[in-house]
Amino acid sequence: MFENAYIPYKGYYSTPFVRWQGSLSTAHPVRLAGATAKRWLAERKPDWDPMKIDYVFMGTTVAMKHAFWNGPWAAALFGAERTVGVWLSLACATGTTAVFQAAMACEVGATEWAQCILCDRVSNGPHSVWPNPNGPGGYVEREDWVMDNFNADPWTGQIAMVATADYVAQENGITKEECDELAWVRYQQYQDGLANDRAFQKRYMFPAEVQVTKKKTVLVEADEGIIETSPEAIAALKPVNDWGVHSFAAQTHPADANASIAVCTREKAKELADDGPEIQVISFGYARAPKARMGAAPVPATEMALEKAGLKPSDIKAWKTHSPFSVNDVNMARRLGIDPFKGFNDYGCSMIYGHPHAATMARHIIELIEQLVMEGGGYGCASGCAAGDTGATLIIKVG
Q1: Is the domain covering 161-203+278-398 a CATH 3.40.47.10 domain?
Q2: Distance between CA atoms of residues 96 and 94, nearest Å
Q3: pTM over 0.85
Q4: What is the maximum alpha-carbon separation in the chain?
Q5: How many CA atoms lie within 13 A of 37 on its CB side?
Q6: In the chain, where do the E strands start and end?
Q7: CB of 254 within 8 A of CB of 29?
Q8: Residue ranges per domain, the chain?
Q9: Residue range 51-86, pLDDT digits in tens
Q10: pLDDT tens digit string along 257-278?
Q11: Cβ–Cβ < 8 Å for 50, 80
């Protein structure tokens, strides 16, 4: 429970999300995130001086060259040259956790202004070679950082993520038809965010500028790689596991992007904010589901966050979830007694626009804020699962 952690109105942005191997696939994620934040800060009012930022919480999950330097490097790239930065990584919950850590820093008086920078390039992830001193002749071990970790959790005995979602469906009697229906509704909700020349997305989305050659740059202004679909097309797809319920339409896809959120004390947030409502970080919850049941973890994490805030599910006006698999939202709606189709991932979610890991929950939090502003304020909940059968939930209040 927080009392002095606030997000300045309009003190955040997300770049477009781009399906992997697309327009952002060759840009170094930290350099791109630093350059994007620098451009964004330059467009803010003079109070947004990066040299006045107290601390940087920088989140990535897919290591790239020079990752050893990530935190302070990212800070220096956008102009906070005397600011300390820490590198955070908690898989899909990295964005939520960065805001949580920044809120704690404000709450205890360690900072007035912390900037969260979240970025990942899932495209062209590293192919690692690890020493294996006990192997025959010390022969090395190899790992594809992205694909090997999608497909095998070392703790569960090499069970793939999609299988953990299918286990949750199997144990809770959730059918393919339910998962397909939810995937179609989420696609329609995403289309709502494109209405009126992308009016909703333009409330928070900031373009990424990519250097293609020495003389050519490309401005990426909208999500790329969204696949058109229909109920019939979704229903026709077979499950990935022949015993499961999730086809490729009922799960997310890898993407590249970056995002940023400022977290401040109340007074600092008032100083930095554009004219608009007060946005308070209320509480944070976390949980770990039973082994290989990743999709179930958001429920106990949300129950913890609600309990800390003294709230009930009915008190929440808008829900945003990172739902890498349809079963996450179906299960959460059942367990908490909420409508999975109304006030729940309005304007889409990562199942539709993709999953650049660290930036994913940041975009969900930002969309949640903007939706609540449009609806006149209230409580909002942003939640999601993460690798290791974990879950994280953030509750905010828009005044």
Answers
A1: yes
A2: 6
A3: yes
A4: 66
A5: 33
A6: 12-14, 18-19, 55-59, 84-88, 113-121, 127-130, 141-144, 208-211, 217-220, 255-264, 279-288, 316-322, 378-386, 390-398
A7: no
A8: 12-124+209-222+253-272, 161-203+278-398
A9: 999 999 999 999 999 999 999 999 999 999 999 999
A10: 999 999 999 999 999 998 899 9
A11: yes
